Amino acid sequence: MPTTPNTQNYTVPGEPIADWKLFEPRIQDGAIVAFTDPSGRRFALREGESLEQERNSAGGRDTYIVTATDRTLFDEWGPKLSADNEERLRASGELGVYFADLYTAAVEANPHLAEAMIIPSGGHQNSVLTKTGGYASHKGATTTGKYEVTINTDDGWAHYETLLHARRTSAEDSARKLGIDPTRFTAKQLAGFIFLHELGHIDDYMHNAPDLSTYQARRDRDMQSLPWPGWNPARMANYLESDEGKRFWAQHSGEWVSAGLHSPADLLHLQETRYHALVTEDNPDQFAVGVLRGNPRLWQEQASA
User: Fold this and answer.
1) Do 43 and 33 meet the contact criterion of CB atoms below 8 Å apart?
2) Confidence of residue 196 (pLDDT cuts 50, 70, 90)
3) The pTM is what?
4) Is residue 235 scored above 60 in pLDDT?
5) pLDDT tens digits, 141-188
6) Which residue in 13, 32, 193, 209 could disulfide with 51, CB within 3.0 to 4.6 Å?
7) In degrees to the nearest 10, what's the CA dihedral of 117, 301, 178, 210?
8) Alpha-carbon span 139 to 117, nearest angstrom
9) How many Å apart are CA 202 and CA 149, to the nearest integer?
10) DSSP letters along the chain, please?
């Protein structure tokens, strides 16, 4: 079993360890003897130390305290995943700095989100990001075993300016949920909404579907209810622009025209409208709205951009 670092890696004395910082506890004889910290490092308690749960009688989150024979309290161990996330974002250019400010505000209000890993990227590394701003992954489907948000920082503001027009229906829906005139919605506002929306997926996973199979069942039900079942708008947009997609439209357009859809753009508009009404999409949207409305300084900065 790994060895606990020297006490110099801890803050002594410190505050109790919040329960959202404690991962994968190893239980032996009814007691926690090892755990994983937010950065993914594994620690074992030394002889004479124990981890005691402190119940919150007011109904808030419980905490844990590492105690030694002299009752010393330990708080910090190694770099926090949230700090790593913020550092990665701030190192990803002006857009990353903006996302880092939004991330900090979101985690301050929702500390459990510090458990997720944020991955800055771009379309040259990840083709999925050429038609969208980002995506969230359930921890049950990642190689790290952590919830992940992959967000496009590398392609800069121009990418979100393109999305503002290419994905007009999605942008307008986001603006309306925020209570903003869609004609005055900016690329910066859209970028912030997309990033917080993806964090909102993580929040939804944690609260409503911590088990991957539970989430997949919810998601499948939602996706199968769409006009074009099983397709998210970004994937659909890519397909309809491809040669195969153009051939498909030419062969089957009669079916869509009879339903009042006279172009691929009409079909995509309908798909996006229904997609953003899905529970598994509206929950993250409402999360984004809540964070932005709770941080008027950031929102005013967005509005003035």
Assistant:
1) no
2) very high
3) 0.70
4) yes
5) 988 888 999 999 999 999 999 999 988 888 999 999 999 999 999 999
6) 32
7) 10
8) 10
9) 8
10) -PPPPPGGGS-SS-PPEEGGG-EEEEEETTEEEEEE-TTS-EEEPPTT-EEEEE--TTSS--EEEEE-TT---B---S--HHHHHHHHHHTSHHHHHHHHHHHHHHHHH-GGGGGSEEEEE-TTT-GGGGSSSEEEE-GGGSSSSS-EEEEE-TTHHHHHHHHHHHTHHHHHHHHHHHT--GGG--HHHHHHHHHHHHHHHHHHHHHH--SHHHHHHHHHHHHHTSSSTT--HHHHHHHHHSHHHHHHHHHHHHHHHTTT--SHHHHHHHHHHHHTTSHHHHHHHHHHHHHHHT-HHHHHHHHH-
Taking the CA of residue 83 as centre, how many other CA atoms within 13 Å lie in the half-sphere pointing to its CB?
10
Taking a C-beta distance cutoff of 8 angstroms, is the pair 176, 110 a contact? no
- Which residues, listed in sequence order, are joined to residue 117 by a DSSP beta bridge? 148
pLDDT for residue 65: 54
**In this structure, what token pair is assigned to residue 251?**
């062969």
CA–CA dist 302, 254 (Å, integer): 43
Q: Tokens representing 3?
A: 């060895």
Residue 116 structure tokens? 């997720």
Taking the C-alpha atoms of residue 91 and residue 42, their distance in angstroms, rounded to an integer, is 27
In terms of residues, how long is the chain?
A: 305
Closest by alpha carbon to 140, among 202, 52, 58? 202
